């Protein structure tokens, strides 16, 4: 039997609706860990459908200046409606993304924005680093591709580990907000200034 206290605890941890939490706990036979996984998978599906099918026409510009006044961030975070743009949770997400950008200094929003010439130049450099080793060519290519992937994850905001929870990527945090707020949310653009 699922009780209201367990549902409320799960709701506080995940931010999902009471009904969704109750359904997830029922499906997981009361196991909170499994229920969290169920909600995460449902949230990813909801986020994916919203990302593919909807247009962002509203949003906000957020600004953040770090306490030492040597790092500043401007961020454009878009959503579908003005109602969500004024929502405190959306504003909090925007602020967290500004903190992420200030702390981790990404250069691009997503991997598809990384210039192909830069990727090819990095491949060439990595291949040269391993050219003098006795490793087979196929293994070198796997290592090179692994290094390219890791490097892209580090320079792209959406693939970076989230500063407040290293087990999540920034994209996961945005997808959770999409599932919770019910609208497509996109990072349109950001600029990081540093002295």
TrEMBL record:
InterPro entries: EF-Ts_dimer_sf (IPR036402), Transl_elong_EFTs/EF1B (IPR001816), Transl_elong_EFTs/EF1B_dimer (IPR014039), Transl_elong_Ts_CS (IPR018101), UBA-like_sf (IPR009060). The keyword Nucleus does not apply. Residues 81-84 are annotated as: Involved in Mg(2+) ion dislocation from EF-Tu. Coiled coil: none annotated. Keywords: Cytoplasm, Elongation factor, Protein biosynthesis. Signal peptide: none annotated. One of its GO terms (molecular function) is translation elongation factor activity. Residues 92-194 form the Translation elongation factor EFTs/EF1B dimerisation domain. It is found in: Cytoplasm. Its main location: cytoplasm. Pfam families: EF_TS. GO terms for cellular component: cytoplasm. Belongs to the EF-Ts family. Associates with the EF-Tu.GDP complex and induces the exchange of GDP to GTP. It remains bound to the aminoacyl-tRNA.EF-Tu.GTP complex up to the GTP hydrolysis stage on the ribosome. This is Elongation factor Ts. It comes from Candidatus Portnoybacteria bacterium CG06_land_8_20_14_3_00_39_12.
């Amino acid at each position: 039997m699922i009780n209201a206290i367990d549902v409320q605890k799960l709701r506080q941890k995940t931010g999902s609706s009471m009904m969704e939490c109750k359904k997830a706990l029922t499906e997981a036979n009361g196991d909170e860990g499994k229920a969290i996984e169920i909600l995460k998978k449902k949230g990813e599906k909801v986020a994916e459908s919203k990302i593919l099918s909807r247009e962002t026409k509203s949003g906000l510009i957020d600004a953040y200046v770090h306490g030492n006044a040597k790092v500043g961030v401007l961020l454009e975070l878009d959503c579908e409606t003005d109602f969500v743009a004024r929502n405190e949770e959306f504003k909090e997400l925007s602020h967290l993304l500004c903190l992420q950008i200030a702390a981790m200094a990404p250069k691009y929003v997503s991997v598809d924005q990384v210039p192909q010439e830069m990727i090819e130049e990095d491949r060439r450099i990595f291949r040269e680093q391993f050219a003098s080793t006795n490793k087979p060519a196929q293994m070198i290519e796997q290592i090179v591709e692994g290094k390219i992937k890791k490097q892209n994850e580090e320079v792209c905001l959406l693939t970076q580990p989230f500063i407040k929870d290293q087990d999540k990527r920034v994209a996961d945090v945005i997808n959770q907000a999409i599932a919770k707020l019910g609208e497509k949310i996109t990072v349109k653009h950001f600029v990081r200034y540093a002295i």
